[in-house]
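Hi everyone,

Forwarding the result from last night's run.
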Amino acid sequence: MSKAVIVIDVQRAFFEADLLPANATQTVTNINRVTQAARGASVPVIFVYHERPQSGLVAESEAWQLQRDLLTDPKDLQVRKTTPDAFLETNLQSQLTDLGVDQLVICGFASEFCVDTTTRRAAGLGYKVELVTDAHTTQDKSHATGEQISLHHSNTLTSIASFPQKVEGVTSESVSF
């Protein structure tokens, strides 16, 4: 079995904006803990970038870039997407196939959109998924805080029993490579 880490949409437009995600600094620290451990074990790290030109999130722009405190490596891979699903009309599946990956460690932004959708799609495709519960986040909404939304999605995703394999919740300190 081979793992890869998927870091979703930790971009400046979201993490260096007026309205920051809940626990933004700690979330980035936790993501860095996961990616550094992965690299130390020669596990690939894939950064997913969201693009939405109609609202100013243009590929290669300043806002599109990864958040400044996120630790990266030249060997890290990239995926560009235009929907909440990192698999839909992207090269993610082919990259994972080429790497022989059958297990994913997922973290990033936004818990209720791209993290949730990509986690569900990965589980539906048969990947063993570990959702890093302290390394995904979202912004506060009128109906709930970002922290409440993230907790809700962690609990929901790890409770679904109908996928080929159950999504497992892990922390940035407990994930193993």
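The first strand starts at residue 3 and ends at 8.

Cheers,
N.
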